[in-house]
Write a structure and sequence with these properties.
With 240 residues, the chain is an alpha+beta fold. The chain contains 10 helices and 7 strands. 35% of the residues lie in helices and 14% in strands. A 7-stranded mixed beta sheet has the order 2-3-1-4-7-6-5. The mean pLDDT is 95.
Amino acid sequence: MKSKIAEAIKLKNYPVAVIRTDDKPDGALMFKEGKWGCVVAMINAASKGKTVALSNATVVCQGGHAGCGFGPYEEGFVDKFLADGAGLKVEGERYKASQELALKFMRWQAVPEGQKEFVVMKPLSEVTEADSPEAVIFLVNADRLSGLATLANFDTENQDNVKHYFGAGCGQSIGNVLDASMRGSRECFIGMTDPSARKVLPTDVMSFSIPFKRFLEMEENADKSFFHTKTWETICKRLE
């Protein structure tokens, strides 16, 4: 599937389609069972042309496990880890001021309904008729992010179609948008503000996640939007 939006924002990588399925694609990149791996690194790999498959059995990281919608956070460890790490043998992340606030976040984080065995991510250009994408993730810099965020509010009366929530980078990019897709929401999400996620990303990269049905609407709007103005042409000159 070719994307007008990707062309308009001069995207150098691939938009990533997110597909939940019970069938693992042949040759998909996966974590080894029992071995820790970062889901954000897998999103990045998909944006570079790889097909990746994540499963309950292979995603060991608690943030990634919850962020992919495989289940809720593990209370008793993650809440301490998000705070000051009191009582743990590892350093706390100090992303929350207290264990109580961390617990509130963990219980707030939605677990998307309709979970299948695998969360598959692959370049949008490789989506086939057999696939049923639920979301599209763009990994972008600030200029491209501005284009996506503006287009997300192009055809609506309300001005808050783009959300940003605290969370792990994978939850910000995958979990939130899968939940929105299941609810039939048009909400889009800015992600990768998680400092832990940023360690495996280039300096200037953020994520922008769109429910697939909303993505198709935005694709239709691309040709009649600001993407065809002198203002955007000026921005595009530094995106070449």
